[in-house]
Design goal:
Elements: E1 9-12, H1 18-29, E2 33-38, H2 41-49, E3 54-57, H3 63-77, E4 82-85, H4 103-131, E5 134-139, H5 152-172, E6 177-184, H6 190-197, H7 207-211, H8 222-233, E7 244-247
Parallel strand pairs: 1-2, 1-4, 2-3, 4-5, 5-6, 6-7
Length: 259
Amino acid sequence: MKVDLSGQVALVTGAARGIGQAIAGVLAANQAKVVYTDVDAAAVEATAGMTSSVAMRMDVTDEAQVQDVIASVVEAHGRLDILVNNAGVNTLAHRVPIDEFPKTEWDRLINVDLTGLYLVSKSAGAVMRRQRSGRIINIASIVGLVPLRLQCAFAAAKAGVVNLTKAMALELGPDGITTNVIAPGSILTEGTEKLFYGQDGKFKDSVQRLLDHIPLGRPGTTEEIAYAVLFLAAPEASYVNGAVLTVDGGWTAGYARDF
C-alpha cells in the first residue's frame, strides 16, 4: 500500500517498539517526515535511527514536556500534519476483578491511556487549528467497545478514547482537522507474548480459547494496524471523520463459535 505523504510532518507517540514503531515506520516509508516519541529515550532513538527519522523523549502524562516537544516540532518543520496517539499501557500483574484492582494501577492506566492522549491532542490540536488542517488518529482497543473481564481500567480508558475521538471530530472538523480512532484486536507484540503467545505467557493455556473468538483464527500483526493508520492519514481519506475502525480479524463482528 502506497500513499503520497511527501511534505507532511507526523508525530507518533509510543513509537519505540510494537505498534507505534510499525506505524512510524510505515509513515516514513510513505515519505512523511516522522518524529518518533516515547518515554524510553534510548529505545526510541535506536528505533528512529532505522529510518533516519527524528527521535524525541516525551512522557505523554507530562503536560509541560508535551508542549515543549510539539513546539520544537513546529519550530523545526513549520507545521504538524499528522498526530498518531499510540502511547498506552495495560496491566500484566493485576488481571483481577474491580474489587481487587489497585487504585495506583487504575491511576497509572488512566493517566497514560486517556489523560496522556488528551494532553497531546490538546497541544497538537492548537497547532492544527492555526494551520486549519490536520489528521489525528487515536489508537484505542476493542476492549473500549466490548469490555473484557479483569481489565476495568483499560476498558474504561479505551472507551474514553473512543468517545473523546468523536468529541474531537465534532470540535475540530470545522477547522479542517479529521479525528478518527482505530480499535485493534489481539495483536502480536511483546506485551501479548508475555500474556498469551509466548512459551512463558501468563495465560498461554488460554490461547486457543482466545483465538476461537477470532474468525481469522490468529492474532494481528503490528503492520496491519500501521496500514490502517496509513489509510486514515492518506489525502484520499479526507471525508472520514469521527470513525471507529476495528482491526480485529472479526472478533467483534459476533459470535464465531457454534453453540
